[in-house]
Amino acid sequence: MDKIYMNGLSFYGYHGVFPEENKLGQRFFADLILEMDLQAAGTTDDLEKTVNYGDIYSTVKEIVEGEPKKLVETVTESIASALLSSYPLIQQCTVKVTKPDPPIPGHYDSVAIEITRSRA
């Protein structure tokens, strides 16, 4: 399967278990791997044979900057579900959502959730 990579999409959202996370918000990053057959797009140079990166970005933005969720797992699952339901050409997607500044003690770069979902 061919792949489109979208890396380091950046958003500001209000997800988290603690009330201050829902009030103050924080940065979130998303990385996507979209798997589909890209041969027709590559041979015809026709945007209709692939997905529009801008539309994908808007879909992810709507979720990450939208209704607050308690869990990053829920945000990640929502993105994968929206991509598969909104873009019929996508056969499988891997979605990674990174929360660089979670309110947990210790030294670390970030925490992240990565899931892979396919069409049934």
Q: How is the topology of this model organized?
A:
Blueprint: E1 2-13, H1 19-24, E2 26-36, H2 39-44, H3 53-64, H4 72-86, E3 92-99, E4 111-118
Antiparallel strand pairs: 1-2, 2-3, 3-4
Helix pairs in contact: 3-4
Report on this model:
There is one protein chain. By secondary structure, the chain is of the alpha+beta class. The chain has one domain (2-118): GTP Cyclohydrolase I, domain 2 (2-Layer Sandwich), CATH 3.30.1130. It is 32% helix and 32% strand. It has four helices and four strands, in the order βαβαααββ. It has helices at 19-24, 39-44, 53-64, 72-86, and strands at residues 2-13, 26-36, 92-99, 111-118. A four-stranded antiparallel sheet has the order 1-2-3-4. Helix 3 packs antiparallel against helix 4. The longest helix is centred in the middle third of the chain and has 15 residues, at 72-86. The protein is elongated.
CATH topology: GTP Cyclohydrolase I, domain 2
Count the E strands: 4
Unreliable stretches (pLDDT < 50, length at least 5) are none
CATH architecture: 2-Layer Sandwich
How are the strands of the biggest sheet laid out side by side?
A: 1-2-3-4
Class inferred from helices and paired strands: alpha+beta
The structural domain count equals 1
Write the H/E string, N to C: EHEHHHEE
Residue-averaged pLDDT: 96
- The rounded Rg comes to 15 Å
* Count of runs of 4 or more consecutive helical residues: 4
Residues in helices, as a percent range:
25-40%
Shape: elongated
DSSP strand (E) fraction? 25-35%
User: What is the CATH class designation?
Assistant: Alpha Beta
Termini, distance in Å? 16 Å
Could you give a short account of the major beta sheet?
Answer: 4 strands, antiparallel
CATH superfamily: GTP cyclohydrolase I, C-terminal domain/NADPH-dependent 7-cyano-7-deazaguanine reductase, N-terminal domain
